[in-house]
Amino acid sequence: MTLTDQPVAGEHLLGRRALTWLLVATAGYVACSILANVMSVRILRIGPDWASFSIDAGTLTYPLTFTLRDLVHKVGGRHLARVVILATAGLNVLAALAFWATSSLPADPAVVSAAQDWFGPVLNPLVRITAASVIAQVVAELLDTEVYHRFVQRFGHRWQWGRVLTSNAVSIPVDSIVFVGIAFGGVVPLSVAVSIVWANIVVKGLTSVLTVPLIYAV
Hints:
Layout: H1 11-14, H2 16-39, E1 43-46, E2 53-56, H3 64-104, H4 114-123, H5 126-155, H6 160-184, H7 190-210
Antiparallel strand pairs: 1-2
Helix pairs in contact: 2-3, 3-4, 3-5, 5-6, 6-7
């Protein structure tokens, strides 16, 4: 056997295809979560004037984390899903601290650019958003993990689409309410906060439905 023919560590447990999906799902979960926290600094207004609604920009990427977590759970099991959730929370805190340090340290006066002037004011709210995101993510995603696990215990390999939709139907409203309440409570008008909550639930729910086929890919 040549060096290139030797099995990668862990393949004897998962198989190369399963291990590949696990790595892709984990990386996607972490990336979508961190991106969402940065993007949530900006509140969007979407739709025509007569039917427009407010939504934080992080909702463009964050909904993907729910199905990606389900993929991690399916391939790696409940324990690994919990590890990924908690590790991602830690990485979000690290990212917020890195942005805070960058905006707090003095800029080089010899470099004149809009980025130098606006980096701090734009990203300073990220600390509060990250706190809200970490709390909401840990609570909702761990709840998602338990619902997913109990569904599998009861139905086994049947109705895989059901385990995704059932677990997400519980975790999505919890995540949206906790996140918006902490991140934007007292910062935006109540009507805007309520709009963000509903928009989050709808967008995350639709994303969950559209990404259900991914559960059959692993």
